[in-house]
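Notebook entry, cofactor series.
This is the third protein in the set we're modelling with a bound small molecule. For this one the ligand is S-adenosylmethionine. I'm keeping the input format identical across the series so the outputs can be compared line by line later. Sequence and SMILES below, as received.
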Amino acid sequence: MDDQNLIIETFEELSPRYQKVVDAELNLFWGWRYSDFVNTLLGLTPIHPEDRILDIATGTGVIPTNIATRNPQVSSLHGLDITHAMLKHAQTDYNDSGLAQPLRLTCASAMSMPYARDSFSLVFCGLATHHMEVDLLISEMYRVLDKGGRIAVADAGSSPLWKIPGVKLMMRMVAYLYFLFKENSTRAWAEALAVSNVRTKEEWEVLLSEVGFNQIKIRQLKSKYRWVPDPLVIYATKLGVKNDKIEQFIKGR
Ligand SMILES: C[S@@+](CC[C@H](N)C(=O)[O-])C[C@H]1O[C@@H](n2cnc3c(N)ncnc32)[C@H](O)[C@@H]1O
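Returned structure with ligand:
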């Protein structure tokens, strides 16, 4: 099974109980409730009525539902996810919330999004970068954002300790065994593979500026235990300064 099918199978199985499970896991690892996570991300992100918003890896749509509740006037609201079953729950929950703002959902990979360049002014991504090739994801975010557009990303960051040879491999094994015991072998593989994709605050800063983002602000919050990666909340702006590397990537799409 390739990595994307592994992710889809993992989240298909998890979809009916996703919000309960994520609430328990965030509480265990970071000492947060799921609602604290969403409130922190949205509390640190300015939203304007003219914003055209995309939530990448939207899952069951908790982030767009909260955006529309707090900002009923936003110009448009989209969610994208690779797992159809997660989107089905997102659609049902959103319809049940009775919000007037339409939510447009798309099933696709965030590493190759079916949107034209300059489609959005604000792109979110919560708890999902660790399941993706982060450089492809960031290049895609840059492509679909218009000039002046912003990203708001929140996920686990890596610890400098993980640079010590052998530590990342050990963390992979710990993740595998933990999720095998608590969940199932598909989730265990998905989370073990995800260990390679987490980055430190400094690595995020380098990557974002290489792709062409400016005004990068990364807040490192505190997890409950020293050995658990701290949550990072990342905010950056596309000022549209010409960058040959990213232009080449965009032309190739
Ligand atoms: C932990 S959930 C996060 C859901 C939501 N953002 C939240 O904050 O609750 C991770 C989500 O990422 C999605 N995902 C993983 N890889 C993806 C990819 N390449 N493209 C789009 N979605 C992806 C999964 O299907 C899953 O719904």
